[in-house]
Amino acid sequence: MSNEIEAIKDPGLPAHVHRRADTDPKAAKKAERQVAILFLLSALGTVTLIGSYIFIPQDVFFYFPVLGNTNAHQLFLGLGMAASLFFIGMGAIHWAKTLMPDEEVIIQRHEFRSPDEDRAEFIKTVKEGAAAAGLGRRSLIKRSLGLSLGLVGLSPLILLGDLGPLPGDELSKTSWKAGTRLVTDPGDRPIRAEDLEVGAVAQTLPEIEPGAHRALSDIGKDAVLLIRLRPEEFNLDAERLSWTYEGIIAFSKICSHMGCAVALYEQQTKHLLCPCHQSTFDVTRAAKVIFGPSARPLPQLAITVDSEGYLVAQSPFNEPVGPSFWERSS
Amino acid sequence: MTAREKIAGSVANYVDERTGAAKWMKKNLTKVFPDHWSFLLGEIALYSFVILLLSGTFLTFWFDPSQREVIYEGAYAPLEGLKMSAAYASTLHISFEVRGGLLMRQIHHWAALIFMAAIVVHLMRVYFTGAFRKPREFNWIIGVGLLTLGIVEGFLGYSLPDDLLSGTGIRIAEAIIQALPLVGSYLAFFAFGGAFPGEAFIPRIYTVHVLLLPGAFLALITVHLMLVWYQKHTQYPGPGRTEKNVVGYPLMPVYMAKAGGFFFIVFGVTAFLGAVASINPIWLYGPYTPGQISAGSQPDWYMGWLDGLVRMSPPLESHFFGHTVSWNILIPGLIVPGILFTGMALYPFIESWITGDKREHHLLDRPRNVPNRTALGVMSLTFMLVALINGGNDIIATTFDLTINQIMWFSRIGILILPPLAFVITKRLCLSLQRADRDLVLHGRETGRLVMMEHGEFVEVHEPISAEKAWLLTQHEQNPALALEESDLRGVRRPGVLKNKLRARMSKAHAVAVPKATAADLKEIEHH
Amino acid sequence: MAPLLLALALFSIGTTFSVAGAATSTPLTAAERSALIDEGQRIFLKGCSSCHGLNLEGSAIAPSLIGVGAASVDFQVATGRMPVADMSQQITRKDPVYNEKEVEALAAYVSSLAPGPDVPGEESLNYERNGSTAEGGELFRTNCAMCHNFAAQGGALTQGKYAPTLMGVTPRHIYEALITGPQSMPVFSDKTITPAEKLSIIKWIKAAEAEPQLGGASLGRVGPVTEGLLVWTLGLGLLVGVAVWLAMKAR
To answer: What is residue B61's DSSP assignment?
Structure first.
């Protein structure tokens, strides 16, 4: 390199500067004492830890500045442990810095590349080995081995087949059927239309047999949010309007983006917001997406009332609820 | 010989006669490690991993990785009598009934956050100083692998307690799996043993979290360290430090005491955080059910950028032939992170292709001397930071009286504009610093003393800098751009012209530099 | 033993928040009542009518108050939200302008013109006796946490609006907010969340408010964002600090 010739010269490693402890026995003694104090602090930490474990009950609280009303057991156990570990480290490092040799040592690197003769010999060995095994000549063995290894590789995949059932139409189905009552979540009480004032919301689930178990995977598809507006506030087509009942509209609470529970309802703006990724849906326009990453409105559940005046589903959801998937058609 | 020496001697003899360890140990105990604080960042990650293993083992003694429904009857009154999974109930048990259990849980979680943060700053150190260059490309790739595994492992740990926040995280992970074209719903049903959330997922990820991934970590970390050991550590440039030597302290005793001591420091600091700062208070989140959610549902910080990307994604979805592709999930959730991480893993090869440099490098670069690389690094960090900010947009909005919509639009536009801007600014900054270095070598240090010249003009007295400093500022190589001919000698255009053109342009951009001061320059100045 | 003590520790502070009963302490006579309404009308005409209209009919900048009820007036005025200081995105809680007596008069006046939800009496707010914390927590997480956050610390809504923190809000005002749905908040009807369930929610909120620091500094109880911030500042700061010291040459 041309500029290498006229480069500024490397002055070499600077001369070693002695520490005070190297020359002054008093300073060395002082450093020794400091290290010992640090180690003793660690011992004190362990004593605190043991003492807190045995003597401080788990339900004692006291005021500690900055932290507030704090659990004494947890705090002192932790502080004891922190001190016991931290000061061992401080002691060891202080020892190394002040009393262990601090003269820098130089060692040489070696090149990683193997010498040419070693490389040649290696290649020869591999070639000879391959030739001895007849890898090149016996193509029948080579191919059949390839086949069997490939098939063996498949078997773990086959054996994992029972990890789960095939999805079938599970992703498209919910528990809602025509006539299923909407009941409060939690509480499982059926709801009458007049129970909701204008501006009211209710978290609901489909009614189940008394005492029946509600699986989380059902809640994950069935959760529905009821909202009551003034009927004139809707901006819906005739079909969607017929899915509402006296200003009450029902949406799947499972976000059409990634499945979080969309239930932040702003009564004044009539917007629904998902707290996970902030997709915003306009309730008056059938949950049309007006902001955020979601690409689809929340599915609307058609509702009406039954003979006893309780809110029921008119029909199941007409589309899959929750996040999109490959088999979803719209 | 004292009695103690005798015993030690006979033990050593016993081991050596069976393993021949003395020869190997003798060589390695005198191994030299250069001293610099930034070389300890990787050590923080390593020690955090050890802390994670220790505290994690403690937690497994009581944790019940099951989604079986139980009725809570433990010490925490506000959840008394509620239905929840055994996983959540046992996490409450660890927190409130096992003495030191909450401390260990908090240490485990803080250690995980420190682990990831330390990996990131270690990666930044390695990147900006060019430590990934030949012969250390393998170790760079292993490092990127560890970072990726760390994100997955951390997310699984966050998911295990089955609280409302972690369940929400799993819900989102399921949506990402489900969004994969063709196989998505099948993979999701296999992973969850049926429809979300099912009862199989937590037991399954538990095995992955405590067995498979820690095993993979252990193997990768071992190789990572063995390579560091075998290839010897890089060192910062300076007087007496060359490509052929290592200047530092021997393992025995100095480095052993320092590195060993530092393990206790890391453990101590983690325990301190576990003692004084609450982390993941699952008892406040409540048990998971898909019908509930909390405002400000966030992942841990190392996933925050991913969440931020997903939040800012435009609402794109394609429907064709009865199928759906969710670009709003695939692009921010898989495609962009995939490109970022692949690019990061391949960067050493890309750079050496651009520069044509195939030599070994053991002396680190000062970031200013490689403006293109430094600028690219700052650009990537800017991208991540914008994404991370958007991941916390709701908390930021309420804290600073902003709106989530403003922050979202800032991020959507900023993620496209700010990274290139950061690139340009950083590159210019690097070149200015190079110029300042040159001036410093040629004209010396400003002393702040003013002297009046004979004709009444004031000038500041400059002091020449030390030979050591001058060497530090000029030791770097300044290689010209690759000269790539577009056509061969007979004027025939070579194949791969476009590729060559690209390479030549990038090489030219990479070689931009302020010429460093040379001995000749100095002499010339002295003559004036 | 331990659970009992923990429960005690959690609720000992909760009980000290007694309800400041502004209304219905003793039944009023007809004369007292009409005097109260007159007083309310006087305050209304002076302080409220410029926006809400002389007959509560509302205007372009303020909603009609016909049928909002005493509960709504009490919530808005006694928490200082009304009269509103600046017409920004969100009407915030601040020190009330009117004293308890004046609020009572205003509420009496507004509800005298058209009936609406009444201010809950002290007897119907006995959440300590009639509420269940665990049930309240479940109701809170289903109905409230999505806006007010898992620990009732508040959260962001769209366009700069936010759900306020519920720390330090009196049980009466929480109850009134539930039945009247102020500003962005929807109404929670008595049939979908029964009065007993509302008391449970209040009891849980008060328990959350009184909960001591079980695991150290709470970091605002807003989830992982502040945790991440602490790791990058204090956590890495301490560790890098020690690393710098470690690599420094001793003198």
So the answer is: T
From B347, B365, B383, the end of a domain falls on B365
E strand segments, B43-93:
69-71, 83-85
CATH code for A173-313?
Answer: 2.102.10.10
Tell me, yes or no, if C187 comes closer than 8 A to chain A by beta carbon: yes
Q: Which amino acid is at C249?
A: K
Q: H helices then E strands: how many in chain A?
A: 8, 14
pTM: 0.93
The answer to whether B184 contacts A263, with C-beta atoms less than 8 Å apart, is: no
Torsion of the alpha carbons at C64, C67, C70 and C71, rounded to the nearest 10: -90
Tell me how long chain C is. Answer: 251
Q: Measure the N-to-C terminal CA separation of chain A; round to a whole number of Å.
A: 65
End-to-end CA distance of chain C: 57
What burial class does residue C42 get, using C-beta atoms within 10 Å of its C-beta: 0-12 exposed, 13-18 middle, 19+ buried? Answer: middle
Q: In this predicted model, what pLDDT tens digit does every residue of C92-145 receive, in sequence order? A: 888 888 888 889 888 888 888 888 888 888 888 888 888 899 999 999 999 999
CA pair distance B277, C218, nearest whole angstrom: 7
Based on the domain organization, do B320 and B441 belong to the same domain?
no
Stretch(es) of chain C classified as CATH 1.10.760.10: 20-117, 120-211
Q: What is the ipTM of this complex?
A: 0.93
For residue B495, the enclosing domain spans 435-527
At residue B145's C-alpha, the angle toward residues B139 and B146, to 5°, is 90
Query: In Å, how far from its chain's centre is CA C108?
Result: 22
What is the per-residue pLDDT across B386-444, written as a single tens digit (0 to 9) for each? 999 999 999 999 999 899 999 999 999 999 999 999 999 999 999 999 999 999 998 88
B451 Cβ under 8 Å from any chain A Cβ: no
Q: How far apart (Å, rounded) are the C-alpha atoms in residues C219 and B100? A: 21
- Smallest Cβ–Cβ distance between B262 and the set A93, A259, A295 belongs to A93
